[in-house]
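TA notes, week 10

Several of you asked for a full example with nothing omitted. So below is the full record: structure tokens for the whole chain, then the designed sequence directly under it. When grading your own attempts, check the secondary structure regions first.
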């Protein structure tokens, strides 16, 4: 395309000179006012608002950017030893496409007969793990050299280097991580008087609030993107102990660990994950709320690990039909499906099928909410727990204990009963057949310490199958009636109606839960 310069008419040029001379002489009228005077008043007002918002973004970025850092991690090459006669494991060397848009296409690594040489190194079928490097983001939270970032940015790294916005670089002297929340703190060597971020209050955020994400996507240092809080309280399967902020501010690989900032320049979240079909930005990103990140980082700095509070209950969501069956209006609260022996909950008198509605007068609307407030509560001190029992409110005093390590990662394996000639009981009304627990040998950890009867078979189109019950589930109680044998189960279940429904307290591979059996439910 060609552009031609056209000379303005002579008269126009003279009038332009006169206009300039008048503007210079008066010097009392700003140029932009003269320009805007020709615009519609509504346009002028809109431009003022747009400029004000632009100024707010500049203010926020200017305050937060100096504290945002580049986090580079390096992992040395390793050799994985195998047992004699063991076949090479392609997955042991890692997926060369991990972290790239091609990871979804090659979940098991390269196909047979192919090799790949790229950012994650070549694959060695003999078990060699090549060295790897990664780049993420972080934010300085203490002038003495404390950086907050994601656990997955530094996980497994042999060396970590942090680069400041002003170009200075520091080696990591110490790294403390909390995989449960995907957070980590890095203590820098020989650092002092560093620029620090101001931390805000993520509890005050509302959907629709403006935020900016700062980080190093694709190694483009100190990149700023803007958006809004598009959701709160989001849950991600891979991270069990955090409820995320959702934002449409652009977050891409390399943003992990960087701050999400409000218009006051305060950090309100730590950018962590994206929802994407391609591996790149598609409008949905997730950040850990700074109130949680602050608490975790303080624990890591002072204790080297995170000590979480623990009630000693297994809990589940409260759906409408279960709530109605328990005589409870609404669905606010969490259902207690198991009380651990010797736990704080047991000592306080919490019972299975109680519905917890508040903790220390803070309303509880779901399992993650209760988990969050309990984990951060003072350990060894009394707290007020409000429950609904048989539809009536009851306040209990409970002393929170530390979360045992064994509980944090508990996930028993699934098993099914073995065929045998043992006696069974079949309920035609509910479409399931059960046998005594003792008729199946080697129950393992899944059923250890629990009485009940094992589901042996379900009718494919029966009430039990419709509720999601399958073989291998341990039925512990029918309603509130404990059943330790098929005779006790038979007496209890025959008192119930499939039309009105009955709640079964059961144990599954994921722990104890409550299932409502109801025809058409």
């Amino acid at each position: 395309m060609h552009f031609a310069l056209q000379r303005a008419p002579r008269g126009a040029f003279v009038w332009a000179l006169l206009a300039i001379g008048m503007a210079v002489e008066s010097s009392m009228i700003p140029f932009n006012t003269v320009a805007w005077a020709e615009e519609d008043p509504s346009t002028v007002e809109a431009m003022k608002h747009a400029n004000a918002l632009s100024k707010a973004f500049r203010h926020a970025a200017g305050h937060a950017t100096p504290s945002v850092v580049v986090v580079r991690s390096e992992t040395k090459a390793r050799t994985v030893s195998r047992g004699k006669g063991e076949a090479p494991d392609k997955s042991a060397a890692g997926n060369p496409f991990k972290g790239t848009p091609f990871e979804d296409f090659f979940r098991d690594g390269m196909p047979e007969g192919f090799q790949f040489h790229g950012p994650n190194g070549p694959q060695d079928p003999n078990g060699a793990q090549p060295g790897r490097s990664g780049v993420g983001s972080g934010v300085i939270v203490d002038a003495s050299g404390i950086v907050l970032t994601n656990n997955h940015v530094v996980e497994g790294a042999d060396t970590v280097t942090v680069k400041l916005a002003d170009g200075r670089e520091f080696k990591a002297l110490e790294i403390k991580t909390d995989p449960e929340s995907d957070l980590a703190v890095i203590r820098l060597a020989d650092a002092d008087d560093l620029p620090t971020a101001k931390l805000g209050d993520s509890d005050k955020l509302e959907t629709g609030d403006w935020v900016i994400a700062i980080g190093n996507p694709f190694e483009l240092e100190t990149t700023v993107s803007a958006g809004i809080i598009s959701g709160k309280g989001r849950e991600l399967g891979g991270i069990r102990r955090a409820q995320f902020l959702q934002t449409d501010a652009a977050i891409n690989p390399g943003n992990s660990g960087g701050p999400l900032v409000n218009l006051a320049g305060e950090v309100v979240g730590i950018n962590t994950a994206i929802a994407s079909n391609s591996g790149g930005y598609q409008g949905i990103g997730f950040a850990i709320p700074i109130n949680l990140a602050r608490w975790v980082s303080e624990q890591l700095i002072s204790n080297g690990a995170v000590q979480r509070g623990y009630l000693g209950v297994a809990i589940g969501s409260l759906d409408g039909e279960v709530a109605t069956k328990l005589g409870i209006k609404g669905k606010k609260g969490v259902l207690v499906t198991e009380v651990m022996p010797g736990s704080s909950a047991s000592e306080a008198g919490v019972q299975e099928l109680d519905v917890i509605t508040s903790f220390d007068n803070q309303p509880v609307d779901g399992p993650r909410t209760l988990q969050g407030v309990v984990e951060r509560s003072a350990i060894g001190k009394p707290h007020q727990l409000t429950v609904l029992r048989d539809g009536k409110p009851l306040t209990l005093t409970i002393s929170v204990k530390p979360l045992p390590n064994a509980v944090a990662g508990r996930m028993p394996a699934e098993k099914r009963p073995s065929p045998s000639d043992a006696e069974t009981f079949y309920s035609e009304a509910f479409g399931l057949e059960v046998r005594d627990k003792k008729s199946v040998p080697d129950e393992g950890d899944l059923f250890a310490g629990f009485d009940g009867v094992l589901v042996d078979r379900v009718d494919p189109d029966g009430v039990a199958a419709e509720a999601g019950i399958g073989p291998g589930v341990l039925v512990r109680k029918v309603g509130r009636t404990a059943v330790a044998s098929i005779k006790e189960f038979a007496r209890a279940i025959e008192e119930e109606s499939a039309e009105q429904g009955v709640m079964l307290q059961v144990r599954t591979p994921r722990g104890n839960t409550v299932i409502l059996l109801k025809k058409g439910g």
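The mean pLDDT is 79. Use that as a sanity check on your answer.
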